[in-house]
Amino acid sequence: MTDSNWHPDLLRRFVPTPYVFSKSDGPNRLCVESNDLEIALSVWDSDIIRRQGSRAEGLLCKIIRDKAGPVDGSEISIVSDGALRVLRMGGGTILIHDRERLELLGFVSPNVKVKDLISSLIPTLFDLCRKE
Q1: How far apart are alpha carbons 126 and 103 in whole angstroms?
Q2: How far is CA 53 from the centre of its chain?
Q3: Is the model's pLDDT at 72 over the cut of 90?
Q4: According to a count of CB atoms within 10 Å of the terminal CB, is the N or C end of the chain lower?
Q5: Mean pLDDT of 11-20
Q6: What is the band of 71 on the pLDDT scale with cuts at 50, 70, 90?
Q7: Closest Cα to residue 85, out of 121, 129, 43?
């Protein structure tokens, strides 16, 4: 297989996430897991994550920095189907919010800045959920 035919396996299940921050307030639990300390801390400190986590039964965020992922494109597409909302940017960044399972799963391309992830991408995904 040549590099031009390579596609990232966005369903990787065995990426270690050593950076874990969590808190519980009664039935509400907020948990952030990542393989990138800057992402974990920034997501944990994010107001939008705290607001989402304080609703209903909390929120689990697992965001993986895919250092081998493609860095092509910056076009954003969003797909919504029932409880799932998916934001894709280029070929290497995907964020999935499952409102039923109260989870945010993401694979982030090496060229995506943490500031953009926190101030733009995640809020765009959550804003879509509020409008529906």
Answers
A1: 12
A2: 14
A3: no
A4: N
A5: 76
A6: confident
A7: 129
